[in-house]
Amino acid sequence: GAALIFLLSLICYIKASNGYFSKNILWFCLSLLFSLLAMFTKEQGITVLGLCIVLEILIVSKCNIAQPSKVFENLRTSGGHIRCLFLTIWSVAVLYLRFLIMQNTLPEFSNSDNPAANDPNILTRFFTFMYLPFCNLYLLFFPWQLSYDWSIEAIPLIEKLVCWENVCSILMYLSLIYILWFYLRCFHLLLKNKNNQNVNIFDLMIFGLAVMIIPFLPASNLFFYVGFIVAERVLYIPSIGFCFLFVNGLYLMVHVKKQPRWLYATVVLSLIFALQTYQRNIAWKDEENLYRSGLVLSPAKSYLNLGNVLNARNKTKEAEQAYRTALKFRSNMADTHYNLGILLQNERRYKEAIYSYKEAIKYRPRLATAHLNLGVTLMSLNLNHDALKVFQNASNLSDHGLKDPGNHAISLTHIRYNAGRILFNLRNTQDAIKWFNEALAGMPDNYEPQSIFNMLGQAYSDLKKYKEAEYYFLKALEFKGDHVPALLTYAQHLVSVVKDYTKAEQHFKKAIFLDPDRVESYQIYGRALVSQSKFDEALLALKKALQILPRDEDSLSIISSIYREMKDYENALYYQLQLNDIKSNDAIALLNLGALYHLMGRLKDAKKSYADALKLDPTNPILLENIKKLEKITRV
């Protein structure tokens, strides 16, 4: 996109320079507009303005740069001085606009993106940055080993004075100086001989060189640091200049020097490059092939990306192996630790996931999503106090200089919301409300707040502030009418507070229709029916929950208690025994089993269940009371 708009700007300028300024002002304005669009597409697009000035001086106004004193005179003659003036003013204005958009700061990036930029040794930085243009030039001449991502493993830092890399750098810069000197010398001699045709050829070659060099300058690290060491994408526009030079050179060799063998060699070279392009297209066919192709040059980044692809395809073992291999190459990659943590968390390997999230935070302390997932994982282990500390510490992480402040803000909102949830579950309702309100205050515009509104409704309901509770339940449903948790909690509110059973029934059924496999919906609906003494309907709902999740503890417990309420002790015992099979060492489950045996007159079984429960919970008052009652019966 940037290259296309870049060329459009250049073409419009060529059209605009065909005559005096006032006659072609439309083409000139189009050129300026396209230069602005090119910059917004990619930063190096702005360099088209510099190329337009070079084009004006060399080709349009035919200035003799070997005689700098006559350059302005030539520009005035052709009207080029006005165009150059406007180009300069426009360049300054566009650069100023760019800095305004970036809030007068340069983009920040991690050490792994450009390690030379953060190296404390000035000589290391100098040698490395002087060598990088040679690497890019080498890729243009010999694009055999390519990679979608050139990481720090591909081009190591140059820390020694005497090395082949520095030799290559020196030879490249000496060659460039020699070309410029040779151009100026030949230009001067040709003008003396009045050989304008050869002058034009030299001008075209220098212009081709300018197309190679000028668009590359923003990515060269010479003016400001960028977030990469080598990127093939930044060579797309410079390659236009390379092709320009190649074609001009081929024209000279074939048509001027009469050496057609160069044309045959070009055909062979084109076929070789076509084959290489075909092979690269195969690599780019899908993500897995692409990342596997980069394992040689950029193993750490490629194994990370490969792990992401494999994980998305549910190849979790291979994905885990890829992540761990990436960490062997570079152990300080926060993204790799984080993605490995997600994989382990999804597999319920919570302790390993916690370690991975902590490592991610260690290497990138402001990675809000790692703090969020660490807290959520701790919640999964019922370590709520530890999770709360994590959320409290991470709730005000700065977004200064982050690449994606929007996602950072979303993660902070989730963090505050989850802190509120923990406090609500710990019965610290007032503090929970504060956290929910903080989440609302700091949420970005694209955040969907129905979950926060729903929790605020539950919190106010817990404080018996039912008007406020209803306001937030309705607010949640107003924002997202198909939000199942809000439908369920509002339906509960309608049953327990408003006593509007008909409306509650509608909300329950809507929630079940929207998510028919959600066990919680049937359980809440079942409890609501029990509160209305609709036992048969409640049993139907809860047995549906058991069809979805056959060994669900809550469903078994509620069904058993309903049958017990109906004095159907055989069925109550049937479901209680299933529950006790799951929770064999749970004092409450053993107490309830003992109570059922007690009611059924199976006193020996009751005594055994009570005894087992007593070992686990010797101070339970209900258990002790039931044991006393049983002892009275056995004495009689």
From TrEMBL:
Pfam families: TMTC_DUF1736, TPR_1, TPR_11, TPR_12, TPR_16. TPR repeats lie at residues 300-333, 334-367, 413-446, 450-483, 485-518, 519-552, 587-620. It is found in: Endoplasmic reticulum; Membrane. It is an enzyme of class 2 (transferase). One of its GO terms (cellular component) is endoplasmic reticulum membrane. It is a multi-pass membrane protein. The keyword Repeat applies. Residues 104-176 form the DUF1736 domain. Keywords: Endoplasmic reticulum, Membrane, Repeat, Signal, TPR repeat, Transferase, Transmembrane, Transmembrane helix. One of its GO terms (molecular function) is dolichyl-phosphate-mannose-protein mannosyltransferase activity. Residues 1-16 form the signal peptide. It comes from the Eukaryota. Pathway: Protein modification; protein glycosylation. InterPro entries: TMTC_DUF1736, TMTC_O-mannosyltransferase, TPR-like_helical_dom_sf, TPR_rpt. Its main location: endoplasmic reticulum. PANTHER family: PROTEIN O-MANNOSYL-TRANSFERASE TMTC2. This is dolichyl-phosphate-mannose--protein mannosyltransferase.
